[in-house]
Amino acid sequence: MARSVFARPAVRRSAWHRPYIAWLLLLDFLSALAATRTAIALLDTADAGFHDPTAPGGVDELFALVANIGLPAGWLVLLAAWGAYDRRALGLGTEELKRVVRATVAMAAAVSFLALGFKKDLSRMTVVVVILALVVYTLAGRFVARTVLRRLRHSGRHASQRMLLVGKLSDALALYEVASRNPAAGLQPIAIHLPSHPQRGEEVDAPVPVYVGWDLVPLVQQIGADTIAVCGPASLESYELRRLAWQLEGTGLGLVVVPQVTDVTGPRIHVRPVEGLPLLNVEEPTISGVSLLAKQVLDRVTAFFGLLLLSPVLAVIAAAIKITDPGPVMFRQTRIGHQGEAFKVWKFRTMYTDAEERLAALQDQNESDGLLFKMKDDPRVTPIGKYLRAYSLDELPQLINVLVGQMSLVGPRPLPTEDDDYQGDVRRRLLVRPGITGLWQISGRSDLTWDDAVRLDLHYVDNWSLTYDIGILWRTVSVVLARRGAY
């Protein structure tokens, strides 16, 4: 008997997201319930007319029904409608948070229209308090859920996509390295499938099992994967990729394709279909215009108030440096900034005053493979300097550089080198102002290789936006507190 084209093989389906989504549903329901309780407490106290307990006709009962069931249920429906439970957006990045905010706007509009349609005297303050409490509680709940999910992924428990990497060994290993370096992303490569047998004498060295010549769907079934990741443009022919997508329909398996154009994301990429052929349009990076002006204004305003609020902390650090080690409190060094212009960077001094003279004797112990000198146990660092470096407190005076327009809050780190050292692709770092923090800092800092650091900086230059900056600033806090890669 001929096999039906609609028959689906029994495969392993990804299941980690199901209990996670169930917890999100509970947290979002409780958030909506807490939002109504907060509004009642605040507005009843202020006598803002949230509801009138003396009104006839059982208004209290109707309000209780809406507050305890209607609004939470409606909130879950709106979140689902905006894709806030889509597993592709959960646990990483800003897409999940964007969808929550969009659902919040929809909720505000829905409440306003319902109040108008039913001619209910609902004060504007009521709507504002409920909506603000709703978004704050929901985002807080999602943050807690993300924290738990990331800890599960770091501990090695199955809360990730188990991926079969399909493609040339070099492309597959590149994706394996990225996924292994970022376990919080939820991508766990468990095997590699090569498109062809290695040539005679060619060694295949991989950290996971390597397969050749298998049908992909049966192989996925055997190894217990739930996602196929096609790595690189030469992995599969276009018709093979289309046929694979057809085979995966209805199986619950995921399909990830790593495009040829890498390190380009966000609004720069647009898909335009022409005669059934999808064309991937890659726009030029936006490094000028209104967004850049807004970034500069935000940088300087934040730097001004940051210096004002942190002045007691800066004074304490300066006193500690002066008391524990003779010499200047500040260290100023020439760095290369925007468009190759040199400037003096401000930092708290963390080394002994003869650090530059002792550098030559330590060059053979350099642990960096790029333009910087890095050494975990650098004997030139003072005791107080080790503490300041661990929590990046020595970087706080760079708010002065931000205030005068030489640096930004977010951007590639300024390097102590000459302008002529920036050759080839590395020179693209100079298209934007250097930053106090950046992708380099939140992705491993000193633990990264020079090539990885450059790749991250170039990715930022090509894809920067105000939203991207805010996300990096948010992640910087957790990285600094965890002291990852700081020495």
TrEMBL record:
InterPro entries: Bact_transf, EPS_sugar_tfrase. The chain crosses the membrane at residues 20-42, 62-85, 100-118, 124-145, 301-321. Its main location: membrane. It is a multi-pass membrane protein. Pfam families: Bac_transf, CoA_binding_3. The keyword ATP-binding does not apply. The keyword NADP does not apply. One of its GO terms (cellular component) is membrane. Keywords: Membrane, Transferase, Transmembrane, Transmembrane helix. Residues 295-481 form the Bacterial sugar transferase domain. GO terms for molecular function: phosphotransferase activity, for other substituted phosphate groups. It is found in: Membrane. Belongs to the bacterial sugar transferase family. NCBIfam families: EPS_sugtrans. This is UDP-phosphate galactose phosphotransferase. It comes from Micromonospora rosaria.
